[in-house]
Design a protein that fits this description.
The chain has about 220 residues and is α/β, with parallel strands linked by helices. The protein has three domains: about 100 residues, Rossmann fold (3-Layer(aba) Sandwich); about 35 residues, Double Stranded RNA Binding Domain, CATH 3.30.160; about 70 residues. The protein has eight helices and seven strands, in the order E-H-E-H-E-E-H-E-E-E-H-H-H-H-H. Helix 5 packs antiparallel against helix 6. The termini are far apart.
Length: about 220
């Protein structure tokens, strides 16, 4: 199976999660973090989902799966280990043309969820196309070592410097030169290492004093 990689904007969109256990809780948590509206369908609830329900963070339906509960759904996640329910959810999703993920059952998925490194605006998705989820997890752990939490400040700073370049430099050649310096990964290492001198030199090459002013907001 050859998958098409994509990042989805699910803010404000309804995702129906079938299942109420630990896996369902993890899925709902990440969906809420992405701004989705979640409808959880299950006769039982993990304590974390109980908290979400009591706080009004999710819509909860205390029942077994029924196709009518998919009304208005943009995505479906089936976090249940019952094969019959998995089949019913997937078949209903196919009939209604809704993308569906049956956790850990690639043959019952119209999309799969990768292992993800999250560092602020930086998102690195890793997938083995369902062949080795454990391998994806280990690769993610290695990448997390390479990209510590501090890289999120670097990404934020890069975004502001990019806007500065686009707004201030009218000559295309100068703009290309500045952007090439901006996106040089050596600068990321300076941020990771806390190399203030290296960061300032990098900023000065990009946009002089205005760029330095932006950088000082992060590293003084």
């Amino acid at each position: 199976m050859e998958y098409y990689p994509a990042f989805l904007d699910i803010e404000g969109k309804l995702v129906v999660v079938i299942g109420g256990g630990r896996v369902a809780f993890r899925k709902v948590k990440s969906l809420l973090e992405a701004g989705a509206k979640c409808r959880v369908v299950s006769p039982v609830l993990h304590e974390g989902l109980v908290e979400f329900r009591d706080n009004g963070d999710i819509e909860y339906i205390n029942d077994v799966f029924k196709e009518e509960y998919l009304d208005g759904a943009w995505l479906i996640v089936a976090a249940t280990n019952d094969p019959e329910t998995q089949d019913r959810v997937f078949n209903a999703a196919q009939r209604n043309r809704i993308f569906c993920n049956v956790v850990d059952v690639p043959s019952r998925c119209s999309f799969i969820v990768p292992s993800v490194v999250k560092r602020g605006a930086l998102k690195i998705a890793i997938s083995t196309s369902g062949l080795g989820p454990g391998l994806s997890k280990n690769i993610r752990k290695e990448l997390e070592k390479q990209f510590p939490e501090s890289i999120s400040q670097y990404i934020e700073c890069v975004g502001k410097l990019r806007r500065l370049i686009i707004n201030n430099l009218k000559n295309d050649d100068e703009k290309k030169r500045a952007l090439k310096i901006l996106f040089d990964l050596k600068s990321a290492q300076c941020f990771i290492d806390g190399d203030k001198q290296g960061i300032r030199q990098w900023a000065k090459k990009i946009g002089g004093e205005e760029a330095l002013k932006i950088v000082r907001n992060y590293y003084g």
